[in-house]
From TrEMBL:
<keyword id="KW-0067">ATP-binding</keyword>
<dbReference type="Pfam" id="PF00512">
    <property type="entry name" value="HisKA"/>
</dbReference>
<feature type="modified residue" description="Phosphohistidine">
    <location>
        <position position="1163"/>
    </location>
</feature>
<dbReference type="GO" id="GO:0005524">
    <property type="term" value="F:ATP binding"/>
</dbReference>
<keyword id="KW-1003">Cell membrane</keyword>
<dbReference type="InterPro" id="IPR004358">
    <property type="entry name" value="Sig_transdc_His_kin-like_C"/>
</dbReference>
<keyword id="KW-0418">Kinase</keyword>
<dbReference type="InterPro" id="IPR003018">
    <property type="entry name" value="GAF"/>
</dbReference>
<dbReference type="GO" id="GO:0006355">
    <property type="term" value="P:regulation of DNA-templated transcription"/>
</dbReference>
<dbReference type="InterPro" id="IPR003661">
    <property type="entry name" value="HisK_dim/P_dom"/>
</dbReference>
<dbReference type="InterPro" id="IPR029016">
    <property type="entry name" value="GAF-like_dom_sf"/>
</dbReference>
<protein>
    <recommendedName>
        <fullName>histidine kinase</fullName>
        <ecNumber>2.7.13.3</ecNumber>
    </recommendedName>
</protein>
<dbReference type="GO" id="GO:0005886">
    <property type="term" value="C:plasma membrane"/>
</dbReference>
<dbReference type="Pfam" id="PF13426">
    <property type="entry name" value="PAS_9"/>
</dbReference>
<dbReference type="InterPro" id="IPR036890">
    <property type="entry name" value="HATPase_C_sf"/>
</dbReference>
<dbReference type="InterPro" id="IPR003594">
    <property type="entry name" value="HATPase_dom"/>
</dbReference>
<keyword id="KW-0547">Nucleotide-binding</keyword>
């Protein structure tokens, strides 16, 4: 409970101090700061003989003091109150109504308001009288004296000179609980409280020494160790002048002491709500105060919410830490909940707990105490928690009287806790309000009704400083300090609104004031009375916000309105608005030019009336309802003259809150016509590009067909020559055929560049190694013409760079070949230098300088265009297609650079190009795998092969090449003949080589027919064709062929294909065997992934590695030759990620037996796995694909598990295989 005040005493929340002290027989007064009596209890009224109404409102010193003392007492009271130096304890005589004096011992304290200001004085006292003992006329009658002493209420004792007990009366024994036997062995020192022992023995010695001792106040301990407060007198029995013994008559004042302590604790707890810094500090202070009046070794405070859903143990002190409950827990059936629900204090013993548990009334958590005092924390009718003390060992640790004390204190504890909680909540709210008050850009201040500044935020202080040159001070008169400096009109406006607000009328107005820099500043000002609880107000809050930008925007908007009107009237597009029923409400004048209507003619008409397609208005409405807007909706509207007009509509729901739409319709008739023209031109260009592509494909096919015969025959002839002259002829033929093939490849490269299909593959390389390769490639040709061929890399050029080595070599080869071609004698040199760098990227310049014939400036401008030759006369001395420099230009651009030439006719030339590259680290260089020449291993059991080709030369070449590889070859001149051969009884082929472009029936159709005839017994069918575009191989695989060999065909290519499908063997394995030559992906058209047909048996669960190797080392070596270990590892890691994703995505289809859904995945997996040498994995993918295509699904799940097994084996094996291949033997 807070310190007593008039307001606090009116609350019906707890027993008042007056009534409590009535129960203790003590007097109580409450005075205000003028000494006027605010409250008096019944005990005081009874003592003085006055009625309550006679006392309240009177000054105490005038009513109860003697006339001569009144003025002095009044001054003492006022001075002591002002300095807070009033005595806390004193004796004073007061006069009753009958004028009789009464001596009273007073204790006093101050009452304070929530801010800590003194509001009065409380006084608690007790009447005191001199204690005399009548000596009845029974001195000689010891029996009567003994009876008299035993029936006395005071404690009487007689001690020897050694302080041994000679006699104690009945009241002494009952109060302290000692037996005669115990007293026989004890002295006074054993009974007195240790704290008071020295003082009492000192007084006793003084008494023996003859010094007077007027009053003795001490504390004895009962046999149970409880203190008993005593007050009384002592005397000495002397014989012949010597002290022989002492006597004492002691009065028990324990209850009075407890009451005084209780009173102090009560008011101390009330003050704690003010002095404690926070709730935890308050709980600890409450504990310390309670320990002054009762035992508090084990104490807890638990609080609940008003809904009684949560219980929070905010304070818990216990000698057994394991008994500590959770800080917060649901409101359930525990002891605290029991006390809160009952609303009454309880004195509970161990037996009481057991009974409550047996009856199911409550649940006990932790150790059960021997005794507990628990009191609800009440504020009026509202219970906020429980306060409890307990003892685990002694049932007599507390008495029922202690419960009354705890209950009395608990109400004050509840008030203190609630006050501190409210105070903290108010503090948090105040902090939030202060944060709001000081945050943001608003200017805030408050004034009273007389115009005095009461409060303000820092924004106001800054504004005041800017306007007046000084900071504001609370209490200044704004009329004088600020408003007087305003211009008259603005000042009158402010005063007018202030006065209206002072009458209780909320105000809002805008003002423009000029700041110190001379700029106009607009503010939006709010004035609102701050109403108190009784409806009155003393202050006005003011909030001002800078709206200068808004006002400027407003003025700008107003200034633009006229312009908008003129723009609106000259608008070329149709602007319109409709209401919620689709009726036009606004239409711009441009409707006249677009649709031929006057605006007045269409306003009020349904907008749907003007759409050519009746369904379009519904589409527009649906899209607006769905998305709130419509963009680029193309439609047609009727012109007044009856013809349709194409318009592009952009519309939205009205943004101003109206239920309707607004939009713009643009006439796009001419735009659509232009687009139609562009579309036709685009179609024509695409058709031309397609024709060009088809032409290149056909040209490549037609050229490669005869070249196949030429190159094939050269290979065969090379194996049969017997003398050097013939060998020279064969070598000349091979060089000529290679030149033809180079020309064809240049044409295809140009086609790929123009189609954007040429990809750059960057790797780390060493410039010196590149230059050495170029030198080795051309040194023989240069020496034949007596040309000195050199290269030089400048010192500041990075030695290691990252770029596309193949394309770099291609550009250098073109430039060096031209330099040697056009130089009859002299020098050709290459200079490599770094011309610029930004720290990360380098621009490298390659310059090829020759001493040849040179080029004129007019011709130099035409050098880098397609099919351009400077000498086009019939007698020209130099050949070529005119594509090399054009391709070099486009490759240089792909590498991030450019190309050019410096030359004078007859003075030689310098062809240069640049590339953008970054410097590489040496550990980025790919490992160089040893080059291993393929060894042709003939078949022990010659396979029977069917060669299908309509060209006699190709038949001859192919048959001869295959025969030399150990094959038995049958030849068919077309698709129908091949079909007839495969139908021949007893004739089975191990492989079919199928030309694609044949008369009557092409190779794809023939393959399909053969598969239809042979079914699962169909051997692998390999496309052997002159189609060489990059996409051709994939197209043939999708159309049903198993592999691909491009023409011109060489023995090495045939050997690789045969050994991918038909390995040198004893008996042929029935497991899958799939590989694809990675070299063919770069040096020849791509080869699709082949898979041999496994035996048609049910697939078991995989328990061992497949019969075929998991990884084909021949393909691994080819990949290493192409890019090294890092390149190969990157390929395998990318495949691991891709294949893993494919297998995971396929799992749901496998689980639901939807195996046909796996066909795209299997097709992709077999091709990629075969390309990278994943033999077993590609074979199983091919096997499953064929099974599922033929509708054989019974072993699908088991087959998929085998596929996953082979994939896991591949992932586990390839890292070590790459490492082995990268380590030279």
């Amino acid at each position: 409970m807070a310190p007593f005040s008039a307001a606090a005493s009116a609350r019906p929340v707890a027993p008042s101090p007056a009534s409590m002290l009535d129960q203790l027989g003590q007097l109580y007064l409450l005075l205000d700061t003028d000494g006027v009596i605010v409250e008096a209890n019944d005990a005081f009224l009874h003592l003085t003989g006055y009625a309550r109404k006679q006392v309240l409102g009177q000054r105490g010193h005038e009513m109860f003091m003697a006339p001569g003392q009144r003025e002095q007492r009044r001054r003492d009271y006022l001075e002591g109150l002002a300095t807070e130096t009033l005595p806390t304890s004193y004796d004073r005589t007061l006069l009753t109504q009958g004028g009789q004096p009464r001596l009273v011992h007073w204790r006093t304290g101050y009452t304070r308001d929530p801010a800590g200001k003194v509001t009065g004085v409380w006084m608690a006292g007790q009447e005191t009288n001199e204690m005399t003992l009548a000596s009845p006329a029974l001195a000689n009658d010891s029996t009567h004296l003994q009876d008299f002493l035993d029936n006395a209420q005071d404690l009487v004792q007689h001690l020897s000179a050694t302080n041994a007990f000679l006699f104690v009366n009945k009241a002494w024994k009952e109060k302290l609980g000692y037996s005669d036997a115990e007293l026989a062995t004890r002295t006074l020192a054993d009974v007195v409280h240790p704290y008071y022992k020295a003082k009492l023995l000192y007084q006793l010695r003084n008494l023996y020494d003859g010094e007077p001792v007027n009053k003795v106040e001490t504390v004895f301990l009962t046999s149970m160790g409880k203190p008993v407060h005593l007050i009384g007198s002592m005397s000495v029995v002397r014989e012949e002048g010597q002290p022989m013994s002492s006597r004492a008559i002691l009065h028990d004042i324990t209850d009075r002491i407890k009451a005084e302590r209780l009173q102090k604790v009560y008011y101390s707890i009330a003050n704690l709500a003010i002095s404690a810094k926070d709730l935890p500090s308050l709980y600890g202070a409450i504990h310390r105060e309670l320990s002054k009046i009762i035992e508090t070794s084990n104490l807890f405070i638990a609080l609940c919410d008003d809904a009684r859903t949560q219980l929070q143990f905010v304070y818990h002190v216990d000698q057994y830490p394991q008994n500590r409950p959770q800080a917060a827990q649901p409101f359930a059936g525990g002891l605290s909940e029991y006390i809160i629900a009952g609303g009454q204090p309880r004195y509970l013993t161990h037996a009481d707990f057991q009974q409550l548990v047996r009856s199911g009334t409550l649940t006990i958590y932790g150790q059960v105490p021997e005794v507990m005092l628990a009191s609800p924390l009440s504020i009026g009718d509202r219970i906020i928690g429980v306060l409890a003390v307990q003892d685990y060992h002694r049932v007599d640790a507390y008495t029922p009287g202690d419960l009354d004390v705890l209950h009395f204190i608990s109400n004050q504890v509840a008030l203190a806790i609630e006050r501190k909680r409210n105070e903290e909540q108010i503090g948090r709210q105040t902090a939030r309000l202060n944060a709001i008050f000081e945050s943001g850009s608003h200017v805030m201040w408050t004034v009273d009704t007389h115009g005095h500044l009461m409060n303000f935020n820092r924004n106001y202080a800054a504004l005041f400083l800017r306007r007046n040159g000084t900071y504001p001070i609370r209490g200044i008169n704004l009329w004088e300090a600020d408003l007087e400096r305003m211009p008259v009109r603005e000042r009158d406006t402010f005063v007018e609104h202030y006065e209206a607000a002072a009458k209780g009328q909320a105000q809002r107005f805008q003002m423009c004031l000029r700041d110190a820099r001379g700029y106009d500043v607009w503010t939006d000002v709010y004035l609102n009375p701050i109403y108190l609880g009784d409806g009155s107000f003393e202050e006005i809050s003011a909030i001002a916000h800078d709206i200068t930008e808004q006002k400027r925007a407003q003025f700008a908007l107003e200034a633009q309105e006229e312009k908008f009107r003129s723009i609106f009237e000259s608008f070329q597009d149709i602007y319109y608005q409709t209401d919620d029923e689709g009726l036009l409400t606004i239409v711009s004048p441009s409707v006249r030019e677009v649709l031929g209507y006057e605006p007045a003619d269409v306003v009020g008409q349904p907008v749907a009336l003007y759409y050519v397609d009746p369904a379009d208005p519904e589409r527009v409405s649906a899209e607006l309802a769905r998305a709130g807007g419509l963009r680029n909706f193309e439609t047609q509207m009727w012109h007044k003259m009856g013809h349709p007009v194409s318009v592009l509509v952009n519309a939205r729901l009205s943004a101003d809150g109206r239920r309707g739409t607004e939009g713009i319709a643009r006439d796009v008739t001419e735009i659509r016509q232009m687009q139609d023209d562009l579309r036709q031109a685009k179609d024509a260009a695409e058709a031309a590009l397609e024709a060009k592509t088809q032409f290149l494909a056909n040209m490549s096919h037609e050229l490669r067909t005869p070249m196949n015969g030429i190159i094939g025959m050269i290979d065969l002839l090379d194996q049969t020559v017997e003398n050097d002259e013939q060998l020279d002829y064969v070598d000349t033929l091979r060089k000529s055929s290679d030149a033809l093939l180079t020309i064809l490849n240049d044409i295809l490269d140009l086609s790929k560049i123009q189609a954007g299909k040429l990809q750059i593959h960057e790797t780390a390389l060493e410039l010196t190694a590149v230059m050495e390769r170029i030198r080795a490639l051309f040194i023989y040709r240069a020496e034949q013409k007596n040309i000195r061929f050199t290269y030089h890399i400048t010192p500041h050029t990075p030695a290691l760079v990252v770029t596309d080595e193949v394309r770099l070599l291609q550009i250098l080869s073109n430039l060096v070949a031209n330099a040697i071609k056009f130089t009859n004698e002299g020098t050709v040199s290459i200079v490599v230098s770094s011309v610029s760098t930004d720290g990360e990227l380098h621009t490298l310049r390659f310059a090829v300088q020759d001493s040849g014939i040179g080029i004129s400036s007019e011709n130099a401008a035409r050098l880098f265009t397609n099919f351009t030759q400077l000498d086009t006369t019939p007698s020209k001395a130099y050949g070529g297609t005119g594509l090399g420099l054009s391709i070099s230009r486009q490759l240089a651009e792909l590498l991030g650079g450019e190309i050019g030439v410096l030359s004078d006719e007859g003075e030689g030339s310098v062809f240069w190009f640049t590339i953008a590259t970054r410097e590489a680290r040496r550990d980025e260089l790919p490992a160089v795998a040893p080059v291993r020449e393929p060894v042709f291993k003939p078949f022990d059991d010659p396979p029977r092969v069917l060669l299908v080709d309509d060209n006699a030369i190709n038949q001859k070449v192919g048959q001869r090449l295959l025969s030399r590889l150990g094959c038995e070859v049958d030849v068919a001149g077309g698709g129908p003949e091949a079909i007839g051969l495969v139908k021949t009884p007893g004739l089975e082929y191990d492989m079919i080589f199928m030309d694609i472009q044949m008369p009557d029936m092409d190779g794809v159709a023939a393959t399909a027919e053969i598969r239809k005839l042979l079914g699962r017994a169909c051997p692998p069918v390999v496309a052997m064709t002159a189609y060489s575009m990059q996409e051709d191989a994939g197209r043939f695989m999708r159309q049903g062929l198993d592999d691909y060999v491009g023409k011109p065909v060489k023995s090495r290519h045939l050997y690789e294909v045969l050994h991918r499908w038909l390995r040198p063997r004893g008996p042929r394995s029935t497991s899958a065997a799939t590989v694809a030559a990675a070299a063919a992906a770069v040096l020849a058209p791509p080869v699709a992934a082949p898979v041999a047909m496994p035996a048609p048996v049910a697939l078991p669960e995989p328990e061992a590695a497949p019969a075929e190797p998991v990884l084909d080392e021949a393909i691994l070596l080819q990949l290493m030759e192409l890019g090294g270990a890092e390149f190969t590892t990157d390929l395998y890691q990318e495949f691991e990620q891709e294949a893993g994703d494919l297998l995971r995505d396929a799992a749901p289809a496998v689980a639901s037996a939807e195996f046909r859904e796996l066909l795209p995945m299997l097709h992709q997996l077999k091709g990629t796995a075969a390309t990278l040498g994943g033999v077993a994995l590609a074979a199983q993918a091919r096997h499953l694909e064929r099974q599922f295509k033929e509708g054989r699904m019974e072993a699908g799940a088991a087959g998929f598990r085998v596929l996953e097994h082979y994939f896991a084996q591949f992932v586990a094996e390839y890292p070590a295989a790459v490492q082995r291949a990268a380590t030279p033997e």
